[in-house]
Recover the amino acids of this structure.
């Protein structure tokens, strides 16, 4: 065991000696200060001797008719010989590894997931300001978290939540827009007014004088609850009107819907395989009969920033693509649902759609265009300052 350890630590060679009188040759060696680490007798005319490389010169000075030659190297010497013989290969491997390592730490694609173009552009510009863009090196995890927090702080009025996910050489940015409930301004002396044109449905007055009735049509800016207390056309007092008003508000919404859609449906067949993922490439291992079309769920087994690839376990589900074609009735129903969702997205907890009806629709280039009318129960409370100077 010690000799094996020495062979790894020191420069050791394996020498082959062939010829007559092998025994006499071995006796001479044993008398010399040459350490024999291992001896193997092949036959009467051939032996293999493992010695330190530094003793080889002494061995060759022995006067003998036997032939002596080196047949193998061990330890550092073996590594040097191996590197020398395969120098180009080793340099190529090292260069290739460093290149892959560098490429694995570059950003090749950034995808911002949000329905609004202006939000996507905002995030892309913020990322660029933080040097996160194509063909730039990825920041460290801690730095990435700092950037996320900085973007949110800088855009508090627009961004509620932000997450940057690293997927290979791509960054996927998930963002949620902040839904700002408009603050109702309050003044020391104020009227409650209509924020929109509407038909009044509910008036809740805590303080002030109600000037309109339920079912009255009001325009934006009309006073609903007055802060002026009147008697015989004279202002007796001015207060801060308080209350809430709800009205029936009207909207026209336009949507478009393609008549042809493609869906993937699982066939029921599935299998598990392992794959190597590197950059934007994926190499399945031993997947002899891959599915033509499939959905993949993956779980990372090996992932390290110093290794330019990931080992993942994948679950493959065979799917078939199916084209569905809406008829006119189905398309109209689906378009109406999309229009309703557009309205509901902007409503608060107590607000709701009262009624809706299609106004007009038409088909063009396999796309259905719909214009739809909505009646919405909505909070239309707003405030207006009462100027005491004007009253005087």
């Amino acid at each position: 065991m010690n000799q094996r350890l020495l062979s790894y630590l020191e420069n050791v060679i394996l020498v082959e000696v062939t010829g007559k009188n092998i025994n006499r040759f071995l006796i001479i060696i044993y008398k010399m200060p040459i350490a024999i680490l291992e001896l193997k007798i092949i036959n009467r005319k051939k032996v293999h001797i493992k010695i330190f490389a530094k003793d080889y010169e002494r061995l060759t000075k022995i006067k003998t008719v036997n032939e002596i030659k080196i047949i193998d190297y061990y330890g550092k010497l073996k590594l040097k010989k191996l590197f020398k013989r395969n120098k180009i290969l080793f340099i190529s491997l090292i260069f290739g590894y460093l290149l892959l390592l560098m490429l694995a730490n570059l950003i090749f694609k950034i995808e911002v997931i949000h329905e609004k173009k202006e939000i996507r552009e905002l995030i892309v510009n913020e990322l660029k300001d933080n040097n996160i863009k194509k063909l730039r090196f990825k920041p460290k995890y801690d730095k990435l978290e700092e950037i996320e927090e900085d973007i949110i702080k800088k855009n508090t009025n627009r961004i509620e939540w932000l997450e940057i996910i690293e997927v290979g050489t791509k960054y996927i940015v998930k963002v949620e827009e902040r839904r700002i409930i408009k603050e109702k301004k309050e003044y020391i002396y104020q009227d409650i007014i209509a924020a929109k044109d509407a038909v009044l449905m509910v008036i809740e007055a805590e303080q002030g004088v109600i000037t309109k009735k339920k079912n009255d049509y009001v325009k934006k800016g009309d006073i609903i609850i007055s802060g002026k207390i009147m008697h015989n056309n004279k202002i007796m007092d001015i207060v801060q009107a308080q209350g809430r008003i709800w009205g029936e508000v009207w909207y026209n919404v336009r949507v478009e819907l393609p008549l042809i859609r493609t869906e993937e449906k699982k066939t029921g067949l599935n299998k598990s395989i392992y794959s190597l993922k590197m950059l934007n490439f994926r190499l399945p291992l031993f997947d002899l009969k891959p599915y033509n079309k499939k959905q993949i769920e993956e779980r990372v087994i090996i992932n390290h920033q110093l290794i330019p690839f990931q080992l993942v376990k994948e679950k493959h589900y065979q799917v078939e693509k199916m084209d569905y074609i809406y008829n006119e009735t189905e398309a109209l129903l689906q378009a109406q649902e999309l229009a309703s969702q557009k309205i509901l997205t902007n409503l608060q907890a107590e607000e709701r759609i009262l009624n809706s009806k299609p106004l007009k629709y038409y088909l063009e280039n396999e796309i259905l265009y719909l214009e739809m009318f909505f009646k919405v129960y909505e909070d239309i409370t707003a405030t207006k300052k009462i100027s005491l100077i004007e009253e005087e």
Summary: The chain has a mean pLDDT of 84. The first strand starts at residue 12 and ends at 18. Residues 87-104 form the longest helix (18 residues).
